[in-house]
Design goal:
GO terms for molecular function: oxidoreductase activity. Residues 15-344 form the NADP-dependent oxidoreductase domain. Keywords: Oxidoreductase. This is Aldo/keto reductase. Pfam families: Aldo_ket_red. This protein is α/β, with parallel strands linked by helices. It has one domain: Alpha-Beta Barrel (TIM Barrel). It is 37% helix and 14% strand. The chain is built from twelve helices and ten strands. It has helices at residues 29-41, 64-75, 107-121, 157-169, 183-196, 219-226, 260-263, 265-268, 275-290, 295-304, 319-327, 335-348; strands at 4-5, 12-13, 16-19, 46-48, 84-89, 126-131, 173-179, 201-207, 229-233, 309-314. The protein has an eight-stranded parallel β-barrel with strand order 3-4-5-6-7-8-9-10, surrounded by six helices. Helix 3 (107-121) packs parallel to helix 4 (157-169). The chain is globular and about 55 Å long. The two termini are 30 Å apart.
């Protein structure tokens, strides 16, 4: 895998990134360390985490994922220099009052979160520091529409950007990014950075997969023209695009044991747990099998080969799963398969938006 540049940041990363939100909930520390070591041995130099992980979020596991990664880095002192390490500051509370209690995300909030992440990760610098979700009210996480009546913004983007600039100047952060953002948000962060000589956002981390291609509804042009890189998360649609839910669904005696949507009721209530999302995934999975591919191969190859994607974030629960995802690199999709994918999307759009 040739490395790619993230925006204008100078950070060079592999086009596959190891996501870590399962560490500390589905994956114990010993297994997480094995996954981290194997990922590095396979050539992946990019790790993504967040202060609020693991998922599903609970007060008891707040910061657990960063702590697990920090202990692995301490045990493997040579690894840190080989890696680009990304983490996120949580936005205003979304039922996570143990992370943030206020409606805004003040300078003090951002600085305190950064210091906490540095401490848990046992590192002196975060290579890519991202805002996990906008401080503004936005249509995200299953919300269809922007509703100005629900706007409760308390911290202007300029203030957030000034604070992130201070962390960069202090040498605690190398580059900054966004997550779960809109075209307006990306444009405004870039505009203010250019107007006031502040750090430019390098990346946006948003969902992008066969059952959620909302990125292509304007954000692709925005980020292409502004030189901002997409970090695609949930390329397998929370497991729906692996085919493991095709026969037994997410619940009941035939549901896959230990799978996130099966085990965690809170996950079934989200966009990935919708009946429409599962029905759509079954259509894509059948298309893959009809063309001699596994559902996982087709879903990952879709992301791996799209011009819109700089790096695809894969989340795994075992070394075997990690190898399966990495081995899908190099898979190409025929024109017939791509036409089949677009035909399904034309019919069912984005059921897991």
């Amino acid at each position: 895998m040739n490395k790619v540049s993230l925006g204008h940041s100078g950070l060079l990363v592999t086009p596959i990134c190891l996501g870590s939100m399962t560490f500390g909930e589905q994956v114990g520390e010993a297994d997480a360390h094995a996954i981290l070591s194997h990922s590095l041995a396979r050539g992946v130099n990019f790790i993504d985490t967040a202060e609020m992980y693991s998922v599903p979020v609970r007060a008891e596991t707040y910061g657990a994922t960063e702590t697990i990664i920090g202990r692995w880095l301490a045990k493997n002192p040579g690894a840190r220099q080989q890696l680009v390490l990304a983490t996120k500051v949580a936005g205003p509370s979304r039922g996570t009052s143990w992370v943030r209690t206020g409606k805004g995300m003040t300078a003090a909030d951002i600085v305190a979160s950064c210091e906490g992440s540095l401490r848990r990760l046992q590192t002196d610098v975060i290579d890519l520091y991202q805002i996990h979700w906008p401080e503004r009210h936005v249509p995200a996480f299953g919300n269809l529409y922007y509703d100005p009546v629900r706007e409760t913004s308390a911290t202007p983007i300029r203030e957030q950007l000034d604070t992130l600039a201070g962390l960069v100047k202090a040498g605690k952060v190398r580059a900054i990014g966004l997550s779960n953002e809109t075209p307006y948000g990306v444009h405004e962060f870039v505009r203010l950075a250019e107007q006031h000589g502040l750090p430019r956002v390098a990346t946006v981390q948003n969902p992008y997969c066969l059952i959620n291609r909302t990125w292509e509804n304007g954000l692709d042009e925005t980020c292409h023209r502004l030189g901002v890189s997409l970090l695609a998360y949930s390329p397998l649609g929370f497991g729906l695009l692996t085919g493991k839910y095709d026969q037994g669904g997410a619940t009941g005696p035939s549901a896959p044991r230990g799978a996130r949507i099966t085990v965690y009721e809170s996950m079934r209530k989200q966009r990935w747990g919708r009946a429409e999302a599962l029905l759509a995934a079954r259509r894509y999975n059948a298309l893959a099998r009809a063309n001699g591919l596994t559902p996982t191969q087709m879903a990952l190859a879709f992301c791996y080969t799209k011009w819109q994607v700089s790096s695809t974030i894969i989340g795994v629960t075992s070394v075997a799963q990690l190898d399966e995802n990495l081995n899908a690199w190099g898979t190409t999709l025929s024109p017939e398969v791509l036409q089949g994918i677009d035909a399904i999307r034309w019919e069912i759009r984005d059921p897991a938006l």
